[in-house]
Predict the 3D structure of the following.
Amino acid sequence: MARREGPVTAPARGRVGLPVVADGSRRHPRLVGAGPGPGACNNGCVDCVSRLAVADRTAADGAVAGHHVVIHDREPTLRRELAATVRDLRQRGAAAIALVTNGRLLGYPARARALRDAGLDRAIVKLFALTAAEHDAIARVDGAHAQALAGIAAARAAGLDVVVSYVERGVTIERAAARAQAHALTERDPVVLPEAEVVGHANEFRYDVVTLRAGVHFEHAYWDTRVFPMVHVNTGPLCNIRCVYCNVRGGTDQRLFDAGYVEQLLDDAAARILHGPDRRGAPTIDLIGGEPTMHPELPRLIAAARARGFARVLICTNGVRLARPGYLDELIAAGLTGVRLSFHDHRAEVAAGLADVAGLGATYPEVAAAVLARPELDTHLFRILLADTLDALPDYLRWLAAHNRTGRPIDLTLGLPSMRGRLFDNRHLYPPLARVRPTIAAAMALAHELGFAPTLHHAPACAYPDDTTRAACLHVVTQQVDAARGTTTVMNFEGDAVHGEACARCPGRTEGCAGLPRAYFDDDRAAAEAWLTPIALSPGRRQDR
């Protein structure tokens, strides 16, 4: 596991990701030249997109402290003094330094490493077409495309954050194909010029809030007494495992977010949730990732959330690093009140296989048993329903009951996998529809015998029509807050879900149910339509009727 911790501790990543600041510079970075004079380029494009006006070139002499800085000046990698320029910007307090480049000279590993060591955070590589022939024709250099791709690979190997920007110059670039190619090259979405839009990531200054649905009488105590409204604050996408079903392809994006930035989101969440007009429920901060335990300042962030008035502070974790002696105690001492543990199988070898990293051994069941032996910790378990593990669900429930030492009923959520991310690469893991409903019904019955009542998340309400008080989609609403703009948007995080014909007759459609993942319709539309069934809501569900 030590190798996967490298991005946190290695010198090139010691800055813990790309800091972001609230002064507007994420939208309007400081554009600087790479040095004196007009600069040069090793491409021959007729219509250059990287020429800076003389006035812009002098920005290098202006204040950069706390700002994102973008070096965008013909082809800056041709300048011998580029590393010194980057180092100077870093010493003057630039929050993040990006470089717009054609990528060709980054193909020399020593060059990429030198820029990394000087303090460069990100390389933005321009591509002019999807094919080598078209790109080279626009660049007017044979082999320019191949060299750009080599530069992308070398920069990533050096530990730089690399993104691609497709610049149309007479050749139409199809968006879906560009996105697929960018993911193949960088495992990231492409970014869009001009520079004012390329240095930030799509979710800067945003966080999700799972709120209680208005007008509902919550007949299952989980909804309004345990964790909602729940604020998901991301500590960065860095993860130490590569789960085969992960909907965000965890483990590929190696960034962590600056603790000061995360604290700004906590400030906004406290003002909005703790002091807002809706005082229902049990307000909770849920620090998520990636894997939040990879953040070296996690205790600070937990303490910060408590200091802002949140009585409940959780981490959403795979639990691997909780196996380190004393670490969980350190988090509890900082103010951690609970753990949302992704515990998808009680069999060590199966759980490790789902994580897709070597050396885990019995870590998963050992950590689950450890947190279930801590009465002072509010433990919430999440178990995804995959085709390969459906049969083991009864034994899993019995395992939980046998290891529960909390003095409280097991808190378990069952869920279908989100049809996104790596699940597209592992379609054999989709649980067969014919088995979903009977498996869930049997699990709910067994759990009742064992003394607890699981809830159902990331699934249509009719997955368990016998008791719709268990369905998350009917009781909570996920919203995304843009802290920079002060706006809130209702979001659907169920992947590409759609309603079928039966949904038109179902009250769940207007009460929050997003429908069934489109993948099932694509596989067998008739079977998907036959599976959907209208539900009956509880007569006491609505408070406003």
User: Anything to note?
Assistant: The CA atoms of residues 2 and 218 lie 45 Å apart. The first strand starts at residue 30 and ends at 32.
